[in-house]
Design a protein that fits this description.
Blueprint (H helix, E strand, L loop, with lengths): L8 H7 L18 E6 L7 E5 L8 E4 L5 E4 L6 E3 L6 E4 L15 H4 L41 E5 L25 E9 L2 E7 L7 E6 L6 E5 L4 E3 L10 E12 L2 E14 L6 E6 L4 H7 L23 E2 L10 E2 L3 E6 L5 E10 L5 E10 L1
Antiparallel strand pairs: 1-20, 2-3, 2-13, 4-5, 4-11, 6-7, 7-8, 8-9, 9-10, 11-12, 13-14, 15-18, 16-17, 18-19, 19-20
């Protein structure tokens, strides 16, 4: 059900200290809270799920393998890789003609342009996990006006989804199927868009595709596997939370151990103004959550520069692979400002179904 949003002078007055003079008038959020089931398909977590809290019944779902690259639709020319399937990318040294590149030219890179090697240097081969793609120095560099300045990349296409019917122990997960191979890729600018050139490593002729910027969306997505553009995320301000597997940075004993593949991860729509922060509770969670009101919101605590503001902070997976090893923290909830300026509190109730299978999140939220 789509909620009706109306203007409220009272709410404007209450929140005016949090808003700039140029912001649009504040609309009233949905007047009642809701409980939401957000399933990414079970313990193999084949799906990505996008939710707008103001229209939570209209969930948007795609397979993780439906896309490979995302092309930014704003003024800058930036491209992201699909971290939900463990992709990685590196420049091919001294390569100038994509059709001349062969596997023998990149053999020294095949073993290191990988995820989960526990080598901190492999962070250079993935997108910055905080989501600040406009300023990142890893992954694919900014696409330059001069075609000759745009490198030819070796792209690790990541992992396929696990086979249908794969057996997964209760409480555990299985994210990675077979490897999806390698591509060589070069991206250049065209008027109001991009041209992607791509091929398998030993191909002597490449494919090309033009991606025109559609500014209704943050990214225009493309599948090299299927040779087509695809719609993945909803329109810019039509989602707040993304439920997905995720390429993050992992730490051991306080030091970076490089990129690592995370399940049960939540990203916020940071590119379009969504921010969140955690409220840690020392006493009874029910009482603290129910008592939290709009006046308790602390604007200084919102995280607007990292789409991992919720991330994996809502659950833990320590221990063995027993059903009880993965569970939702019971000492915290979150406050969220959505893409349209509404404020919510939300807490997570479970990450498994009654059979103990992960990938079945339940959360509740209330407008503030």
């Amino acid at each position: 059900m789509k909620y009706l949003k109306i203007l409220s002078l009272v709410l404007v007055a209450a929140l005016q200290s949090c808003l700039s003079a140029d912001d649009d008038p504040v609309a009233v959020a949905p007047m009642t809270g809701s409980e939401v089931n957000a399933s990414v398909g079970g313990p193999t977590q084949p799906n990505q799920l996008w939710i707008d809290l103001s229209d939570y019944e209209n969930q948007v779902v795609n397979k993780r393998t439906d896309w490979d690259l995302g092309f930014y639709s704003g003024d800058e020319y930036r491209v992201i890789i699909n971290g939900s399937i463990a992709m990685a990318v590196a420049k091919i040294p001294d390569a100038t003609n994509i059709d001349n590149v062969k596997q023998t030219d990149v053999n020294n890179l095949l073993g290191i342009v990988q995820m989960g090697t526990f080598d901190p240097s492999n962070m250079q081969y993935v997108d910055n996990p905080d989501g600040n793609f406009l300023t990142q120095t890893t992954g694919i560099q900014e696409i330059k006006e001069n075609d000759a300045e745009n490198p030819i990349y070796l792209v690790n296409m990541g992992r396929a989804l696990p086979a249908d019917g794969a057996t997964v122990a209760p409480g555990s997960i299985l994210l990675a199927g077979d490897t999806r191979g390698w591509k060589k890729v070069q991206i250049v600018r065209v008027p109001n868009g991009y041209k992607i050139k791509y091929a398998d490593l030993n191909d002597t002729n490449h494919k090309e595709h033009i991606i025109t910027k559609n500014t209704d969306y943050t990214f225009n997505f493309f599948s090299m596997q299927n040779n087509q553009q695809v719609t993945i995320q909803p329109a810019k301000k039509k989602w707040d939370l993304g439920f997905t597997s995720f390429t993050n940075e992992v730490f051991q004993n306080g030091a970076s151990a490089g990129s690592y593949f995370y399940a049960d991860f939540i990203v916020t729509n940071m590119a379009n103004g969504v921010g969140a922060y955690q409220v840690t509770v020392s006493g009874n969670l029910d009482q603290a959550y129910n008592a939290f009101k709009l006046n308790d919101v602390d604007p200084a605590k919102f995280i607007f520069n990292d789409h991992r503001a919720i991330g994996d902070k809502w659950r833990t997976t320590t221990g063995n692979n027993s059903t009880s090893s993965a569970f939702v923290y019971t000492d915290r909830f979150f406050v969220l400002r959505d893409a349209e300026g509404f404020y919510f509190k939300l807490r997570f109730n479970r990450m498994k179904n009654d059979a103990g299978e992960r990938g079945h999140t339940n959360f509740e939220f209330e407008p503030l």
